[in-house]
Design brief:
Length: about 190
Amino acid sequence: MQTSPESCPALVLNADFRPLSYFPLSLWPWQEAVKAVFLDRVNIVSEYDRTVRSPSVEMRLPSVIALKEFIALSRRPAFTRFNVFLRDRFACQFCSGSYATPELTFDHIVPRSRGGRTTWLNVVTACQTCNLLKGNRLPRESGMYPKRQPYQPTTLQLQENGRRFPPNYLHQSWRDFLYWDSELEQG
């Protein structure tokens, strides 16, 4: 039985053959990948066994594509809830517990009601229990101090953190590109 084209996304690499992003993994649906091939915007690096046909063309679906033009990544990532969680590796900075994204929130070290701002340097990932326990108090009042001081990460730091959380599904053809600079096993 042949797999559905919908289950054949393409891993998108920058022109330097590194993924555009690790978390979320840079994937395009098969239609976008095929369109980019025909517009000559990408090179096909690897293919699935699955083919698609039109009246005039038959082609194997790309599993890995590389952009022809390099896209420079922003040195400063956007300040978003998700990027705060990624910076803190999805771990509560008070109890060190690891949680799924829906179970996380963020805590203002200096509460907003006390003049604290919502910035990289004043916000940390917290589980709901610790966030409620700390409440509207300063660390010295609550006795709750973050395990690591908050900092403004670079895009590269977030990429590195994202590599620690592989997606549920990795096609075999993607592995060399996701972990190409990892240390090889010696046998």
